[in-house]
Amino acid sequence: MNWPDEELNSIVTREDLAHYLVQLAAKIDDGRISVENSTTSAFLDSAGRWTNSMDGFFDNVMKEPVPDLPDWAMIAAIFRAALVYE
């Protein structure tokens, strides 16, 4: 799969995902990434809603169907999307 975000394309292992999430938190803390969902419950709600509706993202952006089995990069994409999905 070829994600539009190069950082996601580099996530292959569990360790890659762990590193990505730590770096994502640092980017939020230093203001490089804006967050719409700043509470834990809002973030989890957004993650669930984006995951439920990711068909549209895959149809329009990825130009392929949602894979049946997620990989580490897709998990990272869910975390990233949940920060801003309303």
Task: Describe what this molecule looks like in 3D.
The chain has 86 residues and is mainly α. The protein has one domain (6-82). Helices cover 62% and strands 0% of the residues. The protein has five helices and no strands. It has helices at 6-9, 14-29, 40-52, 54-62, 72-82. Helix 2 (14-29) runs parallel beside helix 5 (72-82) and helix 3 (40-52) packs across helix 5 (72-82). The longest helix is centred in the N-terminal third of the chain and has 16 residues, at 14-29. The radius of gyration is 13 Å and the shape is globular. 12% of the residues are buried. The mean pLDDT is 95. This is DUF7660 domain-containing protein. Pfam families: DUF7660.
Write a compact overview of the structure shown.
The chain is mostly helical and 86 residues long.
Structural domain tally: 1
Helix/strand structural class: mainly alpha
Helix content class: 55-70%
Strand content: under 5%
Secondary-structure element order, N to C: HHHHH
What is the residue-mean pLDDT, rounded to a whole number?
95
Q: Describe the global form.
A: globular
Radius of gyration: 13 Å
Number of strands: 0
pLDDT < 50 stretches = none
C-alpha end-to-end distance: 25 Å
Helices and strands in order, then pairings?
Layout: H1 6-9, H2 14-29, H3 40-52, H4 54-62, H5 72-82
Give keywords.
single chain, mainly alpha, 5 helices, 62% helix, globular
